[in-house]
Amino acid sequence: MQSSNPVFRRSEGFNGRGGNGNQRYAGNGISYPAYGAPTSPPPAYGNPSAWGAGGSGAPADPYADPYAGAPVDQGRMTIDSVVQKTGITLMVVAVVATVTWFLTPAIDDAEAAGTLYLLAMVGALVGFGLAMVNSFKKVVSPALVLAYAAFEGLFVGAFSKVIEGTFGGGNDMPGLVIGAVVGTVGAVAGTLAAYKFFDIQVGTKFRKWVVAAMFGFVAVSLLDFVLAMFDTSFGFNGYGTMGLISSFIGLGLGVLMLILDFDFVERGIAAGLPERESWRAAFGLAVTIIWIYIELLRILAILRGND
Q1: DSSP 3-state of 23
Q2: Measured CA distances, 307 to 8, 168, 196, 242, 303 (Å)
Q3: Fewer CB near the terminus (10 Å): N or C of the chain?
Q4: Angle at which helices 142-167 and 175-197 cross, to 10°
Q5: Model confidence pLDDT, tens digit, residues 198-248
Q6: Does residue 53 lie within any of the structural domains?
Q7: Burial of 163 by CB count in 10 Å (0-12 exposed, 13-18 middle, 19+ buried)?
Q8: Is residue 270 part of a domain?
Q9: 220 vs 214, 226, 235, 237, 300, CA distance in Å?
Q10: Do the domain assignments include residue 140?
């Protein structure tokens, strides 16, 4: 079953096609174990002992390992490796966000606010670009994942400071930010608990509807962003009633995407993917967790502003 999530769909294992059993490619009669060498090569390929990177008699390119040339993985992807890589990725986000918070000026004039908005915009746009590269890259790159985390940290830090300075109790008392962080941790822990204890099964229809809703939400958000440049925004990204509704919808979608992420990670582990794929899992989880944090921060800001 193929994943609809662009973060995971480039990897066969996350789509249930890289299991521990042999895979048979139609038309050639060769069975391949997951990420391994052919078990019954045709005579035309020559002596199997001569196979290798750059060796003569190697199989034709259609059967080449997509991870050829990449650093050799030591073992398979596990829950521990996913947790470790996710922790590293989120730590980079947190460190860069914290540095951005303390090294930027407080919002006490238009110039300071403009600086923060500019940093947030740079972080968001570059982070989005790196997210697209990571999502559609066949072989995951840890360096690009960490680069994404760094620019998202820039965005999160600048955006959080703008929200706190505008709606909170001041930059010295980040009450809204703390509330959003605690809420995000609670949302992730609660979703994981529900996923495991209630044995939530992710079906094809559920997956398609969630992903379609996510892309629809992003499309409407981008449309409102463009319209805002011409002073015709309908408030989807704003801080009024429509903005509150959209943020609650976004939060709900974030939780549903988190369920998909957990399912995809389980599929990858069951498929016996190499440990390097833990970085892809970490990237997918980081995207969703940051999404949930931003929506929670917006909800708290809007509720505080309406007091």
Answers
A1: strand
A2: 42, 11, 38, 17, 7
A3: C
A4: 130
A5: 888 888 888 899 989 998 998 999 899 888 888 888 888 888 889 999 999
A6: no
A7: buried
A8: yes
A9: 10, 10, 11, 9, 22
A10: yes
pTM (two decimals): 0.74
Instruction: Give the chain's domain count.
Output: 1
Burial of 41 (0-12, 13-18, 19+ CB in 10 A): middle
HSE toward the beta carbon, residue 194, CA cutoff 13 A: 12
- CA-wise closest residue to 116 among 150, 151, 154, 153: 154
In 3D, which of 86, 288, 292 has the Cα closest to residue 187?
A: 292
Domain that holds residue 282: 79-305
Contact by Cβ (8 Å): 280, 175: no
Q: Evaluate whether residue 58 is within a structural domain.
A: no
HSE, CB side, 13 Å, CA atoms: give it for residue 11. 32
